[in-house]
Design goal:
Blueprint lengths: L10 H8 L2 E5 L4 H12 L3 E6 L2 H15 L3 E5 L5 H10 L5 E6 L14 H29 L2 E6 L12 H21 L4 E6 L8 H4 L10 H11 L5 E2 L3 H10 L4 H16 L2
Parallel strand pairs: 1-2, 1-4, 2-3, 4-5, 5-6, 6-7
Helix pairs in contact: 2-3, 2-8, 4-5, 5-6
Length: 270
């Protein structure tokens, strides 16, 4: 059955540029799920990666039914390096041209009061697994002469953030990696984008024990990021992310740390 081409602006050109397939991590919920829906709408075949196999299977069925694309499921816990390697191996025979590394989670509260294993696991998911998959797919994209990579940064990536110190540090890693890879890979036909949203109304806040009462939708983030891919190094998708960055930018770095600490204190008050 022929692919259903997108009813979404420039998305068919996106598929032509990077296609035919995309891999999306964190696809069972939130931002990753929104990316998967937009890419299916564009006609990409999809490989969906997350821990929850049932949720992935339901999403793959929905996308196949509505968009006549091929949707495959790889259930994996990306905090486990061996499972990340399994994902890389399982996708070796697919012509993947777009990597959306949306898997990740946060913690909140004073670092010394947190559970160390949870903090280390977050580093494994947000940084180690992201580096493993980015390394694998960047090599494949260079060999095929084209590709796109979206790495999920955050507004918190640009300064230290009290009460989310380790989470902010993981996002600073993602931001810096994306900036460096953008410069390294562009001559090989590979576009790299750091997407740095502000607060997002998704399941992230609940898992991170943060009260997020206003913010962007996951779809805002997906749409803004896909629009910026190949055009920019970093995007702050959505009005709120841009407004918050505008407010923080004039402050010296210690001032941004202080301001973000006050914001985070309000979001994590028990």
């Amino acid at each position: 059955m022929p692919h259903s081409r997108a009813r979404f602006g420039t998305r068919p050109r996106l598929c032509d540029r990077y296609g035919p397939a995309a891999l999306v991590t964190g696809a069972s919920d939130g931002i990753g799920r929104a990316f998967a829906r937009r890419l299916a709408e564009a006609g990409f075949d999809l490989i969906l990666v997350a821990r929850r196999e049932v949720a992935l299977a339901e999403l793959a069925h929905e996308l196949r039914s509505h968009h006549a694309i091929d949707g495959q499921v790889l259930a994996a816990d990306l905090s486990d390096g061996e499972q990340v390697r399994r994902v890389a191996k399982a996708t070796a025979g697919h012509d993947v041209g777009l990597l959306i590394a949306a898997a990740g989670y946060g913690t909140s509260g004073p670092f010394i009061d947190g559970d160390l294993e949870a903090e280390l696991s977050m580093i494994d998911v947000n940084c180690r697994a992201l580096a493993q998959l980015t390394h694998t797919f960047a090599r494949r994209f260079v060999e095929r002469g084209r590709g796109g990579i979206v790495l999920m940064s955050s507004l918190v990536a640009f300064q230290g953030v009290p009460r989310a110190a380790n989470y902010a540090a993981t996002k600073a890693y993602v931001q810096t990696l994306a900036e460096g890879l953008h410069a390294e890979l562009r001559s090989h036909g590979v576009d790299v984008l750091a997407s740095a949203p502000g607060p997002v109304l998704s399941g992230f806040g609940q898992r991170a024990a943060m009260r997020i009462t206003s913010g962007q939708t996951p779809d805002d983030v997906a749409v803004g990021s896909l629009h910026a891919l190949g055009r920019r190094t970093t995007v702050r998708p959505g009005f709120l992310a841009k407004a918050l960055e505008t407010g923080l930018k004039p402050l010296p770095r210690p001032g941004r740390v202080l301001m973000m600490g006050k914001v985070m204190a309000g979001m994590t008050a028990r």
